[in-house]
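Sequence only, no structure available. Ideas?
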Amino acid sequence: MTWLKAVIAFIRARSFRQLTVAGIALSFLVGALIIWLTVARPMQNILDRDGIDTAARDYQQQDDSRIGSTVTHERTAPRPRQAAKQLYWGDLHIHTQESFDSRLFGNPFGIEDAYRFAAGEPLTSVSGETLQLTRPLDFVAITDHAEGFGTLSHCDSDDLSWLEQMSCWLMTTPNPLVFAELVGQLRGEAPETRSDPVATSPAGVYQAITRRAPGLSAFLTCRFSRGATDRCRDNAALAWQRFTQLADDFNQPGTLTTLIGYEYSPVLPNRGKHHRNVIFRTSTVPDRAQSFLDTSNAIELWRGLARDCTGDCDFLTIPHNPNKSWGLTFSRHTWDGLTYQESDWQLRQAHEPLVEIFQVKGASECAVGVGATDEECTFEQVLPPCVSGQTTGCAFTTGFARQGLKLGLELEQSLGLNPLHLGFVGATDSHNANPGDVEEWDWGGATGSVSSSALRRLRESPQSEPFKVNLSGNNPGGITAVWADNPSREAIFDALARRETYATSGPRIAIRFFAGYGIDSSIWEDVNLTSGLPSSSVTMGGVLRTDGYKTAPTFMVWATRDPLDAPLQRVQMVKGWIDNSGNSQERVTDIGCSDGLSPDPETHRCPDNGASVDLETCAYSLRSGASEMKISWQDPEFDAQQDAFYYVRVLMNPTCRWSTYDAIRLGKAPSPSAPATIRERAWTSPIWLSPNAPP
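Reply:
I predicted one. Tokens follow.
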């Protein structure tokens, strides 16, 4: 029995009525002691360490003047053009205090604050740090957890029982202990059972688990009165209406486009995630935000959304943190133990065109030792490959986007359809109401007072696994770029739906990526690029038909550095395919090197261009690297009858990681527990080659 259950059980016990006066007094003393030992003292310790009231004290330990600005604080930057389309930048995954975890982490900022921040206004964190974007966003979707909608709406009422008052106090007083208890409740009461013995299952292969989702009573505020769950359910619908109205109020395309969305959040053990963001095309949305408490698997989520999203309504879903889904994201099973059927894959194909490849909890592109061998798969990745019998806390073969793309090719061979034609987006998943706050040099953390100030962000915990420690397991997150006709909700949504989008780890690297036949090399002279492309060409996210061609198509990549960040170093092509034996394969090839260098013919890697970083000041090389790279490339191993995908990864010169900047603020050396430098990057959505693609 957990500490919170023990306290509630003691308080609600009725046997004390039969005790003597002395017994009653003794009972109260024992009860007070239990409350002190199990609740008050741990809460006091946590609040001293991570609380709001002590955040300013810890902030005094750092000296921000030690960080010389590494960027020019321009409020605007030139937009590369792509014919009639423009490049727009946004964050599709952000939480405010309307999310129960954000509130319990000590974030005081709400939805209105997040919209103003996205438009360029500053916030002052609970410790006193200033949070502000160097450049405002073009679009944003606030995606608070739908499971908590309406669970606190009644807490201002005057007629609450003392149990309800205590519950409201616990759920509104920032404390990570209460969050941990709540997450435990949200996992449900039913024991997990596996279809196959864990000990005999292959390492890193997800096994189906039968689970039962909890109800609203998992929230203390929806438990202790007659009709409490119905009240919370009604309030959830009212809260959703308020959130959608706020999105409409702040929607100003051309200044800030606000897409309506929320997060659907099934809970997994050991801080696992199997969450999806739901994004809507217009202001016409369902009357309710369907949450994990309403339906316990993604298949029913898509069915429910398709049923309720009528008229001018349209939606898409985006899974996040595949790396921490413990293999569930790209498995053939659902959260509650069902197995995907062909009709289920069709639903997924229709409603899930994207995957979040990078965010604050790490990179979900690939992992070394889990179907991938290239060295860049170690980027912001702290999960070791699974060993036999391990079910959490490790890298699964079905937990990364590249593996998901290969699974899509395999499914196409068996089903005749590829339900995993997935484009890439990046996001923050910050719980600080600060969308798009991704610059390493002034990152203010992502979890309210828990990570507000350098001292708290750099704390190490030898007893914890690396992915649970802020220093090694977190980063500022990523950002999404879309090529859209205009900045309206509809145009940005349509670009996302057709996968004409890409992700970066923060810097605003501009990338154009096309493939086609008969492309003339003179196209590089056209600043708009697309006006000279054959009509049969496709852009990132598209499928190119190869049947009937004997030669490889030409891939065109045009990458431009972020004018406020380090130069580009290399461009890589990542290919995945099914070989003649029916096995999925992958290969990473450097197709463009900066500084006039060429890839090694044996390793297919660019030589080191000599770029370096001064770890005392974080000054980076400006004399090496490229401002832009234009590349035409053909696959020397092209097979016209082979299904394959290709995506581009653009790497920058190395720069300081956020933790090194924070170490400088504190006047200390960077911790060896995390890399001192990083190679920021961008990942384009893939282009698929298929002999059977529609003409």
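The radius of gyration is 26 Å.
Hope that gets you unstuck.
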